[in-house]
Amino acid sequence: MGERQVLCRRDELVSGEARRFDVAGTRIALVRIEDDFYAIGDRCSHEDYSLGEGEVWADECEIECPQHGSMFDLVTGEPRSFPATTPVPVCGRGRGRRRGAGAPVTATGTLKVSGLHAEAGGAEILHGVDLEVAAGEVHVVMGPNGSGKSTLAHALMGRPGPTVTAGSITIDGTELAGLPSWRRARAGLYLALQHPIEVPGVRLAAVLTEALRETAGDADRVATSLDAEADAIGFDRRFLDRALNVDLSGGERKRNEILQMGVLRPRFAVLDEIDSGLDIDALRSVARRIELATSEWGLGVLAVTHFRRLLQELRADRVHVMVGGRIVAEGGPELADELDTSGYGAYSA
Ligand code: FES
Fold first, then answer.
1. What is the 48 CA–ligand 1 centroid distance (Å)?
2. pLDDT (average), residues 161-181
3. Which atom of ligand 1 has the smallest separation from the CA of 70?
4. Is pLDDT above 70 for 99?
5. Which of 116, 208, 284, 346 has its CA 20 to 30 A from that of 17?
């Protein structure tokens, strides 16, 4: 994690407004839209004019240069209208990651996977996986179908199916491999399932209350947290009274996984194909919730996916390519762009 500098208190920046700051000699425009904060270079790329004095277009997530009216995308810095033609820089890690200002990360810790081998159905699927996710970071594992991504996710959580035959899974040095899933959850690990199942007769609030009691969380806040988390991701509050996932669509179940993550506040979340079954609006709200969690309580994220579209919404610090049960390439978010042109065929296990 890099050095953090407090620019202002959260409530000092009104939603829908921009302010100019000087950060280590660089001018930035900080913009608030409701609970999202964006930081982009303050100089309009047409001429040197301050975007911090510009008008914010919240619905479009854009800011307008007050001099000649160029509009800039707050996430990418791309100009959306003339006369500016080149992007302004987006500040911060992860290509303009949205973060909850006013809630600086204090969490530390590391989820470390070392030399992980796992087999399923009598065949070795993972052939020595090494990964390290620090608190507050977002890592994405991409790979084709059958590359071992879901096996990795399940092996980390200790789900039935894969058997770890060698290697280690630790949080801050505490070994999790070999522990039952509930003890891994108690240690701070959470798995959002690719195919969440229905649990008739067991209400969502009851599950979360018991889980928080087991993990020394605040079980008294379940009701209020559920409402807030549901609103954050557009999950219909009427579903909160149902038995877990009963009569929910595939997309609603996926949202429910993130809703539960928001209430439980684990230290590290493994997200197994969280993007499948979500339309673009749902994926966007889910990605925003995940990103805010990285700053709210320092959530570390390991997301596995087949599709690059997740990375268009969820700003990754690190991308890993998995092929044939091995990590064959690692890099920044630009690695996903390379995959777009080269495909997985360019990598071999
Ligand atoms: S100076 Fe910004 S559009 Fe001309």
1. 7
2. 94
3. 3
4. no
5. 284
pLDDT, tens digit (0-9, with 9 covering 90-100), for 111-145: 999 999 999 989 999 999 999 999 999 999 999 88
Among 142, 181, 74, 86, residue whose Cα is nearest residue 302: 142
Whether residue 80 has its Cβ less than 6 Å from ligand 1: no
Check residue 266 and give its pLDDT: 94
Q: By the 8 A CB rule, do 187 and 195 touch?
A: no
Encoding tokens for residue 73? Answer: 């995308």
Quick check: CB of 46 below 6 Å from ligand 1?
Answer: yes
Tens-digit pLDDT profile for residues 298-309: 999 999 998 888
pLDDT at 216: 67
pLDDT at 92: 58
Residue 107 above 80 pLDDT?
no
Q: How far apart are the first and last CA of the chain?
A: 31
Q: Is 22 left (phi over 0), alpha (psi -120 to 50) or beta?
A: beta
Q: Which atom of ligand 1 is nearest to the CA of 66?
A: 2
Work out the widest C-alpha separation in the chain, in whole angstroms.
67
**Secondary-structure breakdown of the chain: helix, strand, coil percentages, each rounded to the nearest 5:** 30, 30, 40
- Taken in order of first residue, the domains within the chain and their CATH numbers are 1-104 (2.102.10.10), 110-346 (3.40.50.300)
Ligand 1 centroid to 34 CA: how many Å?
Answer: 26
Q: Are 321 and 290 in contact (CB under 8 A)?
A: no
Does the CB atom of residue 186 touch ligand 1 within 6 A? no
Ligand 1 atom 1: residue of nearest CA: 47
Other CB atoms within 10 Å distance of the CB of residue 225: 20
